[in-house]
Design goal:
It is built from eight helices and four strands. The protein is an alpha+beta fold and 195 residues long. Helix 6 crosses helix 7.
Length: 195
Protein backbone atom coordinates (compact mmCIF):
# COMPACT_ATOMS: atom_id res chain seq x y z
CA UNK A 1 0.00 0.00 0.00
CA UNK A 2 1.57 3.27 -1.17
CA UNK A 3 1.59 6.28 1.12
CA UNK A 4 2.82 9.84 0.74
CA UNK A 5 6.27 10.31 2.27
CA UNK A 6 4.80 12.83 4.76
CA UNK A 7 1.99 10.49 5.80
CA UNK A 8 2.47 8.94 9.21
CA UNK A 9 1.97 5.17 8.88
CA UNK A 10 0.37 3.41 11.85
CA UNK A 11 0.13 -0.38 11.84
CA UNK A 12 -2.50 -2.28 13.80
CA UNK A 13 -1.22 -5.57 15.15
CA UNK A 14 -3.33 -8.68 15.75
CA UNK A 15 -3.39 -7.68 19.44
CA UNK A 16 -5.23 -4.52 18.27
CA UNK A 17 -2.34 -2.35 19.45
CA UNK A 18 -1.36 0.55 17.20
CA UNK A 19 2.30 0.90 16.23
CA UNK A 20 3.87 4.17 15.05
CA UNK A 21 6.36 3.19 12.32
CA UNK A 22 8.12 6.55 12.56
CA UNK A 23 9.04 6.42 16.26
CA UNK A 24 8.88 2.64 16.70
CA UNK A 25 6.50 2.73 19.64
CA UNK A 26 2.87 2.02 20.45
CA UNK A 27 0.32 4.82 20.30
CA UNK A 28 -3.26 5.40 21.43
CA UNK A 29 -6.22 6.93 19.64
CA UNK A 30 -5.57 10.15 21.55
CA UNK A 31 -1.97 10.18 20.24
CA UNK A 32 -3.30 9.78 16.69
CA UNK A 33 -5.77 12.61 17.25
CA UNK A 34 -2.83 14.75 18.41
CA UNK A 35 -0.84 13.97 15.25
CA UNK A 36 -3.82 15.01 13.14
CA UNK A 37 -4.34 18.23 15.14
CA UNK A 38 -0.66 19.00 14.53
CA UNK A 39 -1.31 18.85 10.79
CA UNK A 40 -0.05 15.35 9.99
CA UNK A 41 -1.77 13.04 7.55
CA UNK A 42 -2.21 9.59 9.11
CA UNK A 43 -2.82 6.21 7.53
CA UNK A 44 -3.70 3.19 9.65
CA UNK A 45 -3.35 -0.25 8.13
CA UNK A 46 -3.92 -3.76 9.40
CA UNK A 47 -0.52 -5.47 9.57
CA UNK A 48 -1.87 -8.93 8.68
CA UNK A 49 -4.32 -8.12 5.87
CA UNK A 50 -2.99 -4.78 4.63
CA UNK A 51 -6.52 -3.30 4.83
CA UNK A 52 -6.73 0.47 5.23
CA UNK A 53 -8.45 1.12 8.58
CA UNK A 54 -7.98 4.90 8.60
CA UNK A 55 -11.66 5.80 8.15
CA UNK A 56 -12.73 3.37 10.89
CA UNK A 57 -10.28 4.83 13.42
CA UNK A 58 -11.02 8.46 12.51
CA UNK A 59 -14.72 7.81 13.09
CA UNK A 60 -13.85 6.20 16.42
CA UNK A 61 -11.83 9.30 17.44
CA UNK A 62 -14.77 11.58 16.52
CA UNK A 63 -17.21 9.33 18.43
CA UNK A 64 -15.00 9.39 21.54
CA UNK A 65 -14.75 13.18 21.52
CA UNK A 66 -18.50 13.53 21.03
CA UNK A 67 -19.25 11.04 23.84
CA UNK A 68 -17.02 13.01 26.24
CA UNK A 69 -19.09 16.13 25.67
CA UNK A 70 -16.59 17.76 23.30
CA UNK A 71 -19.38 18.18 20.77
CA UNK A 72 -18.60 19.84 17.46
CA UNK A 73 -21.42 18.34 15.40
CA UNK A 74 -24.93 19.51 16.32
CA UNK A 75 -27.63 16.83 16.48
CA UNK A 76 -29.30 18.08 13.30
CA UNK A 77 -26.02 17.71 11.38
CA UNK A 78 -25.55 14.18 12.73
CA UNK A 79 -29.15 13.38 11.76
CA UNK A 80 -28.56 14.67 8.24
CA UNK A 81 -25.40 12.57 8.01
CA UNK A 82 -27.35 9.45 8.98
CA UNK A 83 -29.98 10.30 6.35
CA UNK A 84 -27.29 10.75 3.71
CA UNK A 85 -26.34 7.08 4.03
CA UNK A 86 -29.80 5.99 2.88
CA UNK A 87 -30.01 8.50 0.02
CA UNK A 88 -26.36 8.66 -0.98
CA UNK A 89 -26.99 8.77 -4.73
CA UNK A 90 -29.22 11.84 -4.46
CA UNK A 91 -27.57 13.53 -1.49
CA UNK A 92 -25.36 16.58 -1.71
CA UNK A 93 -24.18 16.17 1.88
CA UNK A 94 -20.87 14.37 1.15
CA UNK A 95 -19.91 16.86 -1.57
CA UNK A 96 -20.94 19.80 0.60
CA UNK A 97 -18.88 18.58 3.56
CA UNK A 98 -15.83 17.86 1.40
CA UNK A 99 -16.03 21.29 -0.24
CA UNK A 100 -16.50 23.01 3.12
CA UNK A 101 -13.49 21.35 4.69
CA UNK A 102 -11.38 22.12 1.61
CA UNK A 103 -12.21 25.77 2.15
CA UNK A 104 -11.34 25.49 5.85
CA UNK A 105 -7.90 24.17 4.93
CA UNK A 106 -7.32 27.16 2.66
CA UNK A 107 -7.93 29.48 5.58
CA UNK A 108 -11.26 30.82 6.77
CA UNK A 109 -10.30 34.45 7.17
CA UNK A 110 -8.58 34.71 3.80
CA UNK A 111 -11.48 33.04 2.04
CA UNK A 112 -14.11 35.23 3.69
CA UNK A 113 -12.12 38.37 2.93
CA UNK A 114 -11.83 37.37 -0.73
CA UNK A 115 -15.55 36.63 -0.97
CA UNK A 116 -16.41 40.01 0.52
CA UNK A 117 -13.94 42.27 -1.31
CA UNK A 118 -12.93 40.77 -4.63
CA UNK A 119 -15.11 41.15 -7.70
CA UNK A 120 -16.83 37.84 -8.21
CA UNK A 121 -19.01 37.10 -11.26
CA UNK A 122 -20.94 34.52 -9.24
CA UNK A 123 -22.33 37.29 -6.99
CA UNK A 124 -24.85 38.18 -9.69
CA UNK A 125 -26.26 34.65 -9.86
CA UNK A 126 -29.61 33.99 -8.16
CA UNK A 127 -29.23 32.31 -4.79
CA UNK A 128 -25.52 33.09 -4.42
CA UNK A 129 -26.00 35.25 -1.31
CA UNK A 130 -28.07 32.55 0.41
CA UNK A 131 -25.47 29.89 -0.42
CA UNK A 132 -22.67 32.20 0.79
CA UNK A 133 -24.52 32.87 4.07
CA UNK A 134 -25.05 29.13 4.66
CA UNK A 135 -21.39 28.43 3.92
CA UNK A 136 -20.29 31.23 6.28
CA UNK A 137 -22.53 29.97 9.10
CA UNK A 138 -21.21 26.43 8.69
CA UNK A 139 -17.57 27.56 8.65
CA UNK A 140 -18.01 29.83 11.68
CA UNK A 141 -19.66 27.00 13.62
CA UNK A 142 -16.82 24.65 12.74
CA UNK A 143 -14.09 27.17 13.55
CA UNK A 144 -15.52 28.16 16.96
CA UNK A 145 -14.39 24.91 18.52
CA UNK A 146 -10.97 25.05 16.88
CA UNK A 147 -10.19 28.61 17.89
CA UNK A 148 -10.34 27.95 21.63
CA UNK A 149 -9.84 24.55 23.25
CA UNK A 150 -12.93 23.63 25.22
CA UNK A 151 -15.18 26.02 23.31
CA UNK A 152 -16.37 23.27 20.96
CA UNK A 153 -18.69 21.66 23.46
CA UNK A 154 -20.22 24.98 24.45
CA UNK A 155 -20.82 26.21 20.90
CA UNK A 156 -22.20 22.88 19.70
CA UNK A 157 -24.43 22.62 22.70
CA UNK A 158 -25.79 26.09 22.00
CA UNK A 159 -26.33 25.19 18.35
CA UNK A 160 -28.11 21.98 19.26
CA UNK A 161 -30.28 23.85 21.76
CA UNK A 162 -31.18 26.50 19.23
CA UNK A 163 -32.04 24.00 16.50
CA UNK A 164 -34.42 22.09 18.78
CA UNK A 165 -36.74 25.04 19.35
CA UNK A 166 -40.53 24.73 19.39
CA UNK A 167 -40.91 26.46 16.01
CA UNK A 168 -38.80 23.82 14.29
CA UNK A 169 -40.81 22.45 11.39
CA UNK A 170 -39.36 18.97 11.64
CA UNK A 171 -38.10 16.98 8.68
CA UNK A 172 -40.49 18.69 6.22
CA UNK A 173 -38.73 22.06 6.52
CA UNK A 174 -35.33 20.42 6.36
CA UNK A 175 -36.28 18.47 3.23
CA UNK A 176 -37.56 21.60 1.46
CA UNK A 177 -34.40 23.50 2.38
CA UNK A 178 -32.26 20.64 1.10
CA UNK A 179 -34.23 20.57 -2.15
CA UNK A 180 -33.71 24.33 -2.54
CA UNK A 181 -29.97 23.96 -1.94
CA UNK A 182 -29.79 21.12 -4.48
CA UNK A 183 -31.60 23.29 -7.03
CA UNK A 184 -29.27 26.25 -6.38
CA UNK A 185 -26.20 24.05 -6.67
CA UNK A 186 -27.33 22.56 -9.97
CA UNK A 187 -28.06 26.05 -11.35
CA UNK A 188 -24.63 27.26 -10.26
CA UNK A 189 -22.93 24.23 -11.80
CA UNK A 190 -24.73 24.82 -15.08
CA UNK A 191 -23.70 28.49 -15.13
CA UNK A 192 -20.11 27.67 -14.19
CA UNK A 193 -19.87 25.34 -17.21
CA UNK A 194 -20.76 28.30 -19.44
CA UNK A 195 -17.99 30.53 -18.01
Amino acid sequence: MATDKDTLLIKRYASRRLYNTETSDYVTLEDIAGFIRDGREVQIIDLKTGDDLTRQFLLQIVAEHESRGESVLPVDVLTDLVRSYTTQAQSVVPQFLAASFDMLREGQSKMMENLEHLPNPMKTMPGFEAMQAQQRAFLEAMMQGWAQPGAAGQSAGQSAGQSAGPDDGGGEKSDSELAAIKQQLSELQAKLKDI
